[in-house]
Design a protein that fits this description.
The structure is a homotrimer. By secondary structure, the first copy, chain A, is of the alpha/beta class. In chain A, 40% of the residues lie in helices and 14% in strands.
């Protein structure tokens, strides 16, 4: 059986197959969807809440004819969860065909996979990884730049998060990648990721004090991958937050300086990272990126359940 | 595309069509429902919780063959909602065919409609409006009194709420309406509604100190529309609450005094607004009123999605 | 109409029919399920949360083609619930074909049944009863020991809980049962259950100070039915907890001493009641017991809705 636990488990060939399937599922969806997952049950098991990821997987399941069991916050709601995590997973797996798991601790997706009798999909395990969100980022790059090899990426904002981590693991599988990490000290990219990139010969630079609305830092890149800087990091220094946020936001001037072929990505929703002008800019593809998430997650579900639309 | 945002957007003709469809859907439901919404996804997006309204819309969707994504309390559960509300709506709308939205602030249904790529149905936006609840009230009146024109209505209890507001906007579309607003000062009808009614030539009176169990106030009306007086309004004066509640409850004597053709409506569940005798009184139609909600909401879903049962 | 409210309502013949149906549904599920509940809506109405029971009933409904309305914690989420409980039940029953109700107070399942227009299934009402969990325990015993009559059972751990209560009511219907209740004073079996067992001539003993890892207490029994001792009972004496828990856990030595034909049951998830060796022991049937819950709940739904798979 196939669990989706972390970026490292994928080969470049796996990714190609998944992306081809994703784009064919887009066509199928446009024609009204399919019922290849009819009779299957996806269980959303969220120990910390998520609206976007949970709905995205559940919509993917419904669009392919499947059904859903769902908990929005298993840790609040379950007195039963006072026992062994593994027992709960095994119990839930007996009722499900696939479990999408989000947990607040690293490594819990693997712990779940060790005992589950159905595929586990990691929808975020603590600060560790969020591979399916990174997969849709990668699919977006692949699709809009005609491939990932040779890509130059500026990652801006909170780089300590699990999606950025998973994305770096994925990027390390490609050739000629160069990354600039642009973030305040508080949310900089973690050492283990830097070591992994070095070991896989990925060029990267770190910038912790950007100037001039990022103009010089983004004008040559193919991808600006920007995220919210959570206020939570600045609880003791809320004035700092306002000053900081301005330095890590893409300015209108930087937008104008960017290459015509470049793309701007964001996981949504935004705070103040992007200029008002960006919504009408054809290079801003964050809403399409979000929509691709649905196709990629449909492809993931078909793959782990080995059920494909007939007329593929 | 058609959003359902506020009572004012309806014409009398829209209402007629919706009510005709509602009553035909009742027949269809009695015959086992329909699958005209098969493959469609309704997303329940509740920023404040609701059991009755959420279940009513979701049941309407299921009875017509559709599917559901649901959050019971988006504001508790979604760290992602720290960003722009509009981004979240746009993201969710990409996964849905229709969004039923409840929000704690006025005007958020309109803000959602401005960016959503699917119909938005306002299931309550702060203190502003709750048009679908008022629609089922209006449908109940229309059905049981053979039309709304010429109707005399006593509205009793909490008149500051959004359903009463929406209902007043609806009533202003009809001829010969007269309303008596009976409530404590704390929950009286708001000035903007009174101005709207004056502008539309609806006769109304206000009573803030009713006596004698409402006998004189209800004996001539066609409709008693009564609601709970929330304890929350009396937090500092809980003794006041008990005294007040008694004045705004329908007494057994008032029940006996009411016209034979009159009806008693209540959104349910009740606290102590109605006498024990009312449940066995044929004029008490609150349970049927609630059931009508299902038909009206089925009709709303068919209308905004432009999907109708075949044998209509 | 048939509500499932408490263990006492069943006859031995009812149980036989339910268990026969459960085992046939297992076969049907293995062949891909059935659609006999298509078009039916199960409403999960949980006033206190539950993951295992809620998912088990919802999965049973989905596997038979039905649909679901669900609330994880009605008391948190429903401002509407400030009114009469009976009104809420009646309102929800109008939208549903069956309601599975969990409530924090004894007797609320009966109160619901008195007004609901669809079957009520009691999924736990306060400390009173949890008949469906006890039904799956009984089915497990019936299946693995070839019948319940003559069975010798050690019940270990928290015996004040509602499942143990329901199970005792069920066991009193059979012949030659003997029970040993093994628990600390804090969680001992309640007097009313003891009186019920005496009245029905069920032999039982009580042990509140077990020694030597339960060896002597379990070596002759057919069933070890063991549950978590909640830390909540020991809030003021957390050191006590650790000492106590050890006395009410099955030791590896006791496991070795048990009869070859015996079975070990546990509602899952476990804390520290069972030795590490038990998972690989063929007598440990708790995961199967949990799976049987799905079949038993499918059978319950078919029975209360009078809808059966065609090729039964």
């Amino acid at each position: 059986m196939f669990h989706l636990l972390e970026a490292q488990q994928f080969t470049k060939r796996n990714l190609r197959e998944l992306f081809d399937l994703s784009s064919r599922l887009e066509t199928i969806l446009a024609r009204g969807g399919d019922e290849c997952l009819k009779g299957k049950i996806l269980t959303s098991l969220y120990f910390t809440p998520s609206l976007r990821t949970r709905f995205s997987f559940e919509a993917a399941m419904l669009r392919l004819g499947g059904s859903i069991l769902s908990t929005e916050a298993a840790d609040i709601f379950s007195s039963e969860l006072k026992g062994r995590f593994e027992d709960t997973i095994q119990v839930v797996s007996e009722m499900s065909d696939v479990i999408v798991l989000r947990h607040y601790e690293s490594g819990f997706a693997k712990r779940a996979a060790a005992v589950s009798c159905v595929p586990i999909i990691n929808a975020g395990d603590g600060p560790a990884q969020h591979p399916t969100q990174a997969l849709l980022d990668l699919y977006t790059i692949d699709r809009h730049l005609g491939g990932v090899d040779g890509c130059s990426i500026a990652m801006v904002g909170d780089l300590s998060g699990r999606t950025v981590r998973s994305l770096c693991y994925f990027l390390a599988k490609f050739h000629g990648i160069s990354i600039s990490f642009i973030s305040p000290d508080l949310t900089e990219i973690k050492d283990d990721i830097k070591e992994y990139l070095q070991r896989h010969k990925v060029r990267f630079t770190e910038i912790t004090n950007p100037k001039d609305g990022l103009v010089d830092l983004v004008k040559e890149v193919d991808v600006v991958h920007i995220t919210q800087l959570s206020k939570e990091y600045f609880t003791d220094h809320l004035e700092d937050y306002k000053k900081t946020i301005r330095n890590y936001a893409l300015s209108a001037k930087a937008l104008r300086a960017m290459k015509r072929s470049a793309v701007i990505m964001h996981p949504l929703p935004r705070a103040d990272e992007l200029p008002d002008e960006s919504d009408s800019d054809p290079r801003a593809i964050y809403f399409r990126q979000n929509r691709y998430g649905l196709y990629v997650r449909m492809a993931i579900l078909c793959t782990v359940l080995s059920c494909y639309p007939k007329f593929l």
